[in-house]
Amino acid sequence: MTERLLTHLRHVDLAVPDYDQQLDFYAGIWGLTKVAEDSGISFLAAEGSPEQYIVRLRKAEDKRLDLISYGAASPADVDTLAEQLLAGGVQLISQPGKVDTPGGGYGFRFFDIDGRTIEVSADVAARQHRKIEEKESIPVKLSHVVINSPDLGATKEWYEHHLGFRLSDTLWHPKMGEAMHFMRISSQHHSMAIAQGPHTSLHHISFEMRGIDEYMRGTGRLLRAGVHKVWGPGRHYAGDNTFSYFHDPHGNTVEYTTELEQLDEDTWHPHVYDFSTDEVSDQWGTANPVNELVAKESFNDPDRGCFIAPPV
User: Fold this and answer.
1) 68 with 12: CB under 8 angstroms?
2) Which has the closest alpha carbon to 251: 201, 312, 287?
């Protein structure tokens, strides 16, 4: 396995046909803050996060995942990773250099095994952020991202081999076999998970809330506003985190969560959990059942951006 050079998840960038509606959703009821906007591109931050932004929206004809961005500790690590990927036959989109987005920095982009655009950067200026107050039900930070892959095992092995991800846990189903791998780049149980899906697509983006009360208040706010709920509220077994999944206006699944498990990496061994068991899907027993409809809603539309780099 490759040495771990990634430090954390920075942001997830989406291309959206109805740009204004999406911007109203994320900068409104979802609770992010628009920090910059220019020519059909907006950058949205979480008030509690030092990241310059955690979601980027771009106006486009086709809905797609533009990219997933990760941090590295230094420009030297960025260069090392680029050299390793190139030597390993990974297709680079750009060479390491200046990053022209809020906060600047030094980074590059490349395609993963399924054709998603991945960005890695270092030396990005920290954003002035603040403590989220009690009962303030807005996201503190970006928690994790989950992707759908038609070849679960191959995608897992690619991220382990090329980017140094480690397996935390696996979900298994008696009818499907292995269904999801939770992958980490730190002591956080997962910053990414890979789900078995019928096509390459975004499964969901997860946003961390201050605590249980703020998580429930945010969940209730969206329910009262009539935002389509996919699944929840509940508490997962793998990762031990809470979950409430909703659809944004274009059918991307977004999650409020909190209390994601922190692991002792020296002693942790991956588990295989049977998620046909009720307690594995939801420890609390408060969420709606995981039926076929819920599963299909998480498949999302096939990503039209595979092996096509975003224009910006």
Assistant:
1) yes
2) 201
Give this prediction's pTM. 0.97
User: How far is residue 170's CA from residue 31's CA, in Å, rounded to a whole number?
Assistant: 31
Q: Are residues 155 and 287 in the same domain?
A: yes
Dist. CA 171–CA 151, nearest whole Å: 15
pLDDT, tens digit (0-9, with 9 covering 90-100), for 77-124: 999 999 999 999 999 999 999 999 999 999 999 999 999 999 999 999
Residue 302 covered by a domain: no
C-alpha–C-alpha distance, residues 286 and 156, integer Å: 31
Give every CB contact of residue 36 below 8 A, 6+ residues apart in sequence. 42, 43, 53, 102
d(CA 116, CA 64): 10
Residue 70 sits in a domain of what CATH number? Answer: 3.10.180.10
In a domain, 308, yes or no: no
